[in-house]
């Protein structure tokens, strides 16, 4: 079953129109919450007047920070102690720091009344100066802290000595614009507190359900066993959904306060100004290189615009940027300095390929600049700096998500060779040359990257065969639309030989399995997939032992064939796994010397990640009349280690590529000089549609299976995104005839400016 492109198990209810999204939950007595948000980017709250809202018929309550006794939201991932003062309160108490910050909540019997009540809340705010760029001098966060949230420097080797050794110094400043994931379904949550049982049920997207359960129970002063998270379908995750936001805690608080189910459903404008933003980095890179383009030292200083607060991700993005920036290149001397700065914008977090999209753009722009200044072919420069396969595993003295950076396997040059041959890029380049000679603005660009996947430290799976032979797989992993259920079922089917349509995968409900890490960091195929393999193997061993005892034969004389156990070479003795399960009822199991039930729970542990890698190539043309770049074709080569379901891997890559395209050419959150957001609808925020997404050709390879897990797999969730911006920039340079692009997104205005210049700089 592993390696086959089977249809997704998840799709049946969705295709039947029976999906259960956040807004589909309608519990008896359910009421509706609206959030009153700041209309000022930075200011002191003088008063919050809730009286008129409370008097509106149908309103059940209205509360401000003075009424809501909830603590700040804690960090979930990589954190530094100096970041603690910058955690976000669920409601602003004395100061607001971005447009959209929650100031108060109202709850009413229906959503329309709640929206009317929201408009009746009067909030008086005295404006304070705003900070809108990470490159500005730090401003005031509060009486004790400025907006410099974090500074750190990591290094190995001797960068200063290499820079002073008389080599060529190549410099680049690269900027990655502020954008984020825009799911089809906005955020939403339903909380239902039962006073009689003391149980709080929470319904909504949860990529990290067990963490959110523990965090909510701590914030609410409840036992974790009394908070139950139920995951529904998700209309897009992309790293920004399912984290713990202020609204999640507020619906729970309101439900406890009222003793009724409370629903909060975000509208699109709210999403643009309150869900996590991302990217928004500026890099200043210097490299010491030999005349052949070999990088002897790399020095990078970068600034991250974190927005107004540090949310659950803490230092995840800057540390991933710093640790993964060297990418596939050897680089014996490396130093990176990071400056995380708060600004009066919506807080930032993770978004598909966090830190790597930014770092890859900066690094690959540097590689192209080196080639440009030295008069070399950019792919020759890449090849001369690639880590060789015989150097694997390749270790760097850096940390990524709390794990040591050690590339587990890879042959980067081989992937390039296979892609170039498979796609016929030599012929494409010749066609580009002819078109340019005819006067067209067209170019071919390339970029290479290393990703990370398979973050631990654990994931658990329980596999149970019932008496009908149906298999239930329960895991603490969660689904955000990535085809997780199908992947897990295929791994189980590989071991037990049962078709996946006879399997049910349950996940992410905290009442189903006690522990789980969730869906992020492209980890589930590695972690939950490996745990499923181990659990299915344990079930198989138990089935063999029980069958052997039932038939008084040695276990070595029992085999599994097409989902049935039998005596070796004796088809007439074959029985379904369901028959074995029936034999393992409590009383009969005791007679067989077995524990009751044909079930097993196993855990896979890992203290490291693995490192897939890929190659992006873009063919771009520019219309000189409207200055709009058009991506005519795009190619992605990706070594997955082992593809459990190649169709799903390709789907992940195509979706990721579309999001990489948005950041490269279209999407950017912009603000005016007062910190007012200028992109609060799809009129202002230019998200690519299907018409803008180019044909994408994908080559999946399995040349470097991971030695770090029993399946040999690596993650696939981010490989379509990582180098998209870098490849587009390279192709635009080729179309323009000169190294030019150091900032994304690139829109028609920038292209017009470049084409109007009489002389190239």
TrEMBL record:
InterPro entries per record: Ald_Oxase/Xan_DH_a/b, Ald_Oxase/Xan_DH_a/b_sf, Ald_Oxase/xanthine_DH-like, AldOxase/xan_DH_MoCoBD1, AldOxase/xan_DH_MoCoBD2, AldOxase/xan_DH_Mopterin-bd_sf
Alphabetically ordered keywords of this record: Molybdenum, Oxidoreductase
Presence of the UniProt keyword Oxidoreductase in the record: yes
A Pfam family: MoCoBD_2
Matching Gene3D superfamilies: Aldehyde oxidase/xanthine dehydrogenase, a/b hammerhead, Aldehyde oxidase/xanthine dehydrogenase, molybdopterin binding domain
A GO molecular function held by the record: iron ion binding
Domain Aldehyde oxidase/xanthine dehydrogenase a/b hammerhead positions: 16-129
Name of the protein: Unannotated protein
Organism of provenance: freshwater metagenome
